[in-house]
Amino acid sequence: GNNPNQLVRHYYALVGYNYFNAASKIGIEQSVLMRNTSYSGLQFDFNFKTNFNESFFILCGYRTNNELLAGFGIKYGRLGLVYNLDINMGEIGQYSNSSHEFGLIFYLNNSKKVLDWNSDINMQYN
Protein backbone atom coordinates (compact mmCIF):
# COMPACT_ATOMS: atom_id res chain seq x y z
CA GLY A 1 0.00 0.00 0.00
CA ASN A 2 0.89 3.62 0.45
CA ASN A 3 2.98 3.34 3.65
CA PRO A 4 4.86 6.59 4.48
CA ASN A 5 7.45 4.67 6.57
CA GLN A 6 8.95 2.87 3.59
CA LEU A 7 12.35 3.83 2.18
CA VAL A 8 12.13 6.70 -0.30
CA ARG A 9 14.73 8.56 -2.32
CA HIS A 10 16.10 11.72 -0.72
CA TYR A 11 17.66 14.64 -2.58
CA TYR A 12 20.01 17.12 -0.87
CA ALA A 13 21.87 20.21 -2.07
CA LEU A 14 24.06 22.38 0.15
CA VAL A 15 25.69 25.69 -0.63
CA GLY A 16 27.53 27.89 1.83
CA TYR A 17 30.14 30.51 2.42
CA ASN A 18 32.71 30.76 5.22
CA TYR A 19 34.72 33.89 6.03
CA PHE A 20 37.28 34.03 8.84
CA ASN A 21 39.02 37.25 9.91
CA ALA A 22 42.47 36.33 11.26
CA ALA A 23 42.93 39.67 13.08
CA SER A 24 39.73 39.45 15.14
CA LYS A 25 39.62 35.62 15.09
CA ILE A 26 35.91 35.79 14.30
CA GLY A 27 34.40 33.82 11.45
CA ILE A 28 31.01 33.97 9.77
CA GLU A 29 29.44 31.04 7.95
CA GLN A 30 26.23 31.14 5.95
CA SER A 31 24.60 28.11 4.36
CA VAL A 32 21.43 27.02 2.59
CA LEU A 33 20.36 23.37 2.57
CA MET A 34 17.72 22.08 0.15
CA ARG A 35 16.12 18.70 0.71
CA ASN A 36 13.29 16.90 -0.98
CA THR A 37 11.47 13.58 -0.69
CA SER A 38 8.25 12.40 -2.28
CA TYR A 39 6.55 12.61 1.16
CA SER A 40 7.94 15.81 2.62
CA GLY A 41 8.18 17.95 -0.50
CA LEU A 42 10.76 20.70 -0.99
CA GLN A 43 12.25 22.23 2.16
CA PHE A 44 15.01 24.80 2.70
CA ASP A 45 17.19 25.52 5.74
CA PHE A 46 18.80 28.96 6.03
CA ASN A 47 21.62 28.97 8.60
CA PHE A 48 23.95 31.60 10.03
CA LYS A 49 26.87 30.63 12.27
CA THR A 50 29.49 32.80 13.99
CA ASN A 51 32.80 31.27 15.13
CA PHE A 52 34.88 32.85 17.88
CA ASN A 53 38.61 32.07 18.03
CA GLU A 54 37.90 28.72 16.30
CA SER A 55 36.90 27.34 19.70
CA PHE A 56 33.28 28.47 20.23
CA PHE A 57 30.35 29.08 17.90
CA ILE A 58 26.73 30.14 18.00
CA LEU A 59 24.20 29.53 15.27
CA CYS A 60 20.66 30.42 14.28
CA GLY A 61 18.52 29.37 11.39
CA TYR A 62 15.11 29.03 9.83
CA ARG A 63 13.47 26.10 8.04
CA THR A 64 10.69 26.68 5.55
CA ASN A 65 8.45 24.30 7.52
CA ASN A 66 8.24 27.09 10.16
CA GLU A 67 11.02 25.89 12.45
CA LEU A 68 13.48 28.17 14.20
CA LEU A 69 16.95 26.82 14.99
CA ALA A 70 19.42 27.91 17.65
CA GLY A 71 22.56 26.30 18.98
CA PHE A 72 26.12 26.57 20.16
CA GLY A 73 29.27 24.52 20.16
CA ILE A 74 32.57 24.33 21.99
CA LYS A 75 35.78 22.96 20.51
CA TYR A 76 38.74 21.79 22.57
CA GLY A 77 41.62 20.29 20.60
CA ARG A 78 40.18 17.50 18.46
CA LEU A 79 36.93 17.25 20.42
CA GLY A 80 33.76 19.28 20.00
CA LEU A 81 30.47 19.41 21.91
CA VAL A 82 27.36 20.75 20.15
CA TYR A 83 23.85 21.60 21.36
CA ASN A 84 20.98 22.52 19.01
CA LEU A 85 17.36 23.47 19.70
CA ASP A 86 14.60 23.26 17.06
CA ILE A 87 11.40 25.17 17.81
CA ASN A 88 8.44 24.37 15.57
CA MET A 89 6.36 27.50 15.02
CA GLY A 90 3.93 25.79 12.61
CA GLU A 91 0.69 23.95 13.25
CA ILE A 92 2.45 20.81 14.51
CA GLY A 93 4.14 22.93 17.18
CA GLN A 94 0.84 23.03 19.07
CA TYR A 95 1.06 19.26 19.60
CA SER A 96 4.76 18.68 20.13
CA ASN A 97 7.55 20.21 22.16
CA SER A 98 10.84 21.50 20.77
CA SER A 99 13.52 19.01 19.88
CA HIS A 100 16.96 19.02 21.50
CA GLU A 101 20.08 17.63 19.89
CA PHE A 102 23.43 16.95 21.54
CA GLY A 103 26.48 16.00 19.52
CA LEU A 104 30.03 14.93 20.20
CA ILE A 105 32.53 15.61 17.40
CA PHE A 106 35.97 14.13 16.91
CA TYR A 107 38.03 16.01 14.29
CA LEU A 108 40.19 13.50 12.40
CA ASN A 109 42.54 15.89 10.60
CA ASN A 110 42.26 19.35 12.07
CA SER A 111 45.14 21.13 10.36
CA LYS A 112 45.16 19.97 6.72
CA LYS A 113 43.37 22.08 4.13
CA VAL A 114 41.25 20.00 1.79
CA LEU A 115 41.46 22.59 -0.97
CA ASP A 116 44.26 25.15 -1.16
CA TRP A 117 43.32 27.82 -3.72
CA ASN A 118 46.85 29.28 -3.77
CA SER A 119 48.75 26.11 -4.66
CA ASP A 120 46.29 24.14 -6.81
CA ILE A 121 47.15 25.03 -10.40
CA ASN A 122 43.69 23.98 -11.63
CA MET A 123 42.03 26.61 -9.43
CA GLN A 124 44.17 29.58 -10.47
CA TYR A 125 43.07 32.15 -13.00
CA ASN A 126 45.56 33.71 -15.42
Helix segment tally: 0
Helix share bin: under 10%
Strand order of the largest sheet: 1-2-3-4-5-6-7
| Major β-sheet annotation | 7 strands, antiparallel
String of helices and strands: EEEEEEE
The N- to C-terminal Cα distance equals: 59 Å
Shape verdict: elongated
Determine the strand fraction and express it as a percent band. over 45%
Summarize model confidence as the mean pLDDT: 83
How would you summarize what this structure contains?
With 126 residues, the protein is mainly beta.
Report on the structure:
The protein is mainly β. Helix content is 0%, strand content 56%. The chain has no helices and seven strands. The chain has strands spanning 11-21, 26-37, 41-52, 56-63, 67-76, 79-88, 99-106. Strands 1-2-3-4-5-6-7 form a seven-stranded antiparallel β-sheet, with no helix packed on it. Strand 1 and strand 2 form a beta hairpin. The radius of gyration is 18 Å and the shape is elongated. The model has no long low-confidence stretch (mean pLDDT 83).
Record the SSE blueprint:
Blueprint: E1 11-21, E2 26-37, E3 41-52, E4 56-63, E5 67-76, E6 79-88, E7 99-106
Features:
single chain; 126 residues; mainly beta; seven-stranded antiparallel beta sheet; 56% strand; elongated
